[in-house]
Write a structure and sequence with these properties.
five-stranded antiparallel beta sheet; 604 residues; six-stranded parallel beta sheet; disordered C terminus; alpha/beta; Rossmann fold; Beta-Lactamase
């Protein structure tokens, strides 16, 4: 509506009162109201004056406002029914009309708006009587868009009304609840809305003031409040910036922490995980975040115990668990965790995850080494203690072999017993040599030792129907103790033959290789002993190098592979095995690698 400036003394101008019933062609007035009653009072005057003058009115409003307008017009003696019959009063639903002039994204379409709203103006003007009829229009479609948070669409619709007014003559009013502009971020779009209007009617808290001093006083109060609000908003923005900086710093610390950190929701879903945890496990963010934490725990009973502690509101420290990595490996971890609770509702848990896989391996290695040292001492003591009695027994059998009272058969038995006792003494000496090195290593040809061991087992292999395949491509010269090298090959070949009681194939190979080892690649000799026997059960494969573990029941001591591994490790080498199913059984192979970079010995 058009607002007229009212002059006062000394030419000072203050904000004037505004009335809805001022009709101005091409005028575009906006009212900001607090109560619906103020809106309806002004609107009924605006429409009523037009109808009583024989002009036309278009009202695009909500049902509640249309009903209230009709009631108000009737109370003031305006015959709106006559206007409706003559099509001088057109009343439409704001939401329904809005849906017709906007696209799927609720954006006003210029062509639809012109066709529909422009057509309404033409129709209303045609229904009027007289030579120079006027059309007044009220619309609150813009208010609906603003209430939906679509401020840009509301401003665009205001612009379309203005563009239509350049081609058709009408007086336009629109209205917004002032409560919809209560936030600081509303300031800029509020100013844009005001800029699209020729006049503005403030809320009734201002328009209800009737005297100049009251309005000036009200303006001063509003100015003070605006300044105080602006200062408060500036301070708040500074506080927000400070909080954002702190949040950014905290997020950076957590995201780039060395230890793993994650948040897990009440349904076990991983809500967030930092780079360290994802890197430890090998997953990308989308492969881990959003999935159930239980999917990555190797043992579900452990996960359930962990979760049960959280649900009891316990603070958890150093909780041991195992997590499955993307490559199939398993990480040993410990978890520190506690939950965030709001009253009785569990929100999420904060988990700090530390990878202790290497630490566990070191602890196990240390424990194994301590066991081996202790067993070595025991073995050395036993070997030492039995050596003296063996000397005596050896001498007794030597004397028996030459005693004149014995016949030849008895002497032969005494000789056999003497040889067996000699073997026992040799074993005792080997045990002492294994536990306490004596002398220095010498150049040893693995080929010659392997030939000797195969010859020793030739009869047993033939008796069991075992075919021996040899693939020897090197002399395999290493710096070692011959007795120890022989011990390794005896243990491996004996195990292979025992694994083929019904016959099979024993494959032995010897070749020069370069193997990846810490800290880099090293040249050496690899001896491989393979058999087509019964194989090694999966459940036993992580135990076969443990002392006293044997699958041969009473026939085995469980020390052969353990001793062999100890000797190979003393050389700085490795011993590995593989057991896989083939088309006619299993193929089990043991590969012994002994580095040769510590010596350069040649065979004459």
């Amino acid at each position: 509506m058009s607002a007229a400036n009212t002059p006062i003394s000394n030419s000072t101008v203050f904000a004037p009162s505004s009335n809805w019933n001022e009709h101005k062609s091409h005028g575009h007035v906006v009212q900001f109201y607090s109560e619906d009653e103020a809106l309806i009072t002004g609107l009924s005057s605006f429409v009523g004056i037009a109808l009583n003058a024989g002009d036309a009115a278009i009202v695009i409003a909500t049902k509640a406002h249309r009903d209230a307008l009709i009631q108000s017009l009737s109370l003031h003696g305006v015959d709106q029914s006559k206007g409706l019959k003559q099509v001088r009063l057109i009343m439409l639903d704001a939401q329904e009309t809005l849906s017709k002039i906007t696209d799927d994204d609720s954006w006003p379409d210029a062509v639809r708006f012109t066709d529909i709203v422009g057509g309404l103006v033409d129709r209303a003007r045609a229904a009027c009587e007289g030579l120079n009829p006027s059309v007044v229009a009220f619309g609150e479609m813009v208010s609906l868009l603003w209430a939906e948070g679509k401020s840009d669409a509301a401003i665009r619709l205001e612009q379309l009304w203005n563009e239509l007014a350049k081609r058709r003559s009408f007086s336009l009013r629109c209205a917004y609840p002032i409560s919809g502009f209560g936030r600081g971020e509303h300031s800029e779009p509020f100013l844009k809305i005001c800029a699209e209007h020729s006049n503005i009617i403030p809320s009734e808290s201002y328009t209800a003031l009737n005297t100049e001093p009251d309005r000036l006083r009200n303006i001063s109060i509003l100015q003070q409040k605006a300044l105080a609000l602006e200062t408060e908003m500036a301070e708040r923005r500074e506080v927000q910036r400070s909080l954002q900086r702190r949040e950014s710093e905290l997020a950076d610390i957590l995201e780039n922490a060395i230890e793993g950190v994650q948040q897990v929701g009440p349904d076990h879903t991983v809500l967030w995980a930092n780079n360290a945890l994802l890197s430890h496990l090998g997953y990308s963010a989308h492969e881990y975040v959003g999935h159930s934490l239980s999917e990555f725990h190797v043992r579900q009973d452990v996960f359930e115990a962990f979760w049960a502690k959280l649900m009891r509101r316990e603070d958890i420290y150093d909780f041991p668990a195992e997590l499955l990595c993307k490559d199939g490996s398993i990480k040993q971890i410990v978890i520190h965790s506690n939950g965030l609770w709001e009253s009785d509702r569990f929100v999420y848990t904060r988990c700090f995850v530390r990878d202790v896989t290497e630490q566990k391996c070191l602890e196990e290695s240390l424990l194994t080494a301590e066991k081996q040292v202790a067993m070595g001492r025991v073995a050395a003591i036993i070997a030492h203690e039995i050596n003296n009695p063996l000397e005596t027994v050896t001498n007794v059998f030597y004397l028996l072999r030459e005693h004149p009272s014995l016949d030849e058969d008895a002497r032969e038995l005494a000789r056999v017993a003497s040889d067996e006792i000699a073997r026992v003494r040799h074993i005792a000496k080997q045990t002492l040599a294994f536990c306490r090195d004596s002398g220095s290593p010498v150049p040893v040809s693995l080929r010659l030792v392997l030939d000797a061991v195969l010859e020793a087992f030739r009869g047993q292999a033939q008796k069991s129907g075992i075919v021996v395949e040899r693939r020897i491509s090197t002399d395999g010269l290493v710096l070692a103790f011959p007795v120890e090298v022989r011990q390794i090959l005896i243990n491996l070949i004996a195990n292979a033959i025992q694994a083929m009681p019904s016959g099979g194939t024993l494959r032995v190979s010897l070749r020069q290789v370069t193997e990846q080892m810490t800290p880099g690649k090293r040249p050496g000799i690899r001896a491989t002993i393979a058999d087509t026997g019964v194989g090694i059960p999966v459940e036993h494969r992580d135990k076969i190098f443990q002392p006293f573990f044997s699958t041969k029941e009473e026939k085995g001591t469980g020390l052969g592979l353990w001793v062999s591994q100890g000797i190979v490790q003393k050389f700085g080498g490795t011993i590995r095995f593989r057991s896989k199913k083939s088309h006619n059984g299993f193929i089990t192979s043991f590969a012994v690698f002994i580095p040769t970079d510590a010596t350069s010995v040649s065979v004459a």
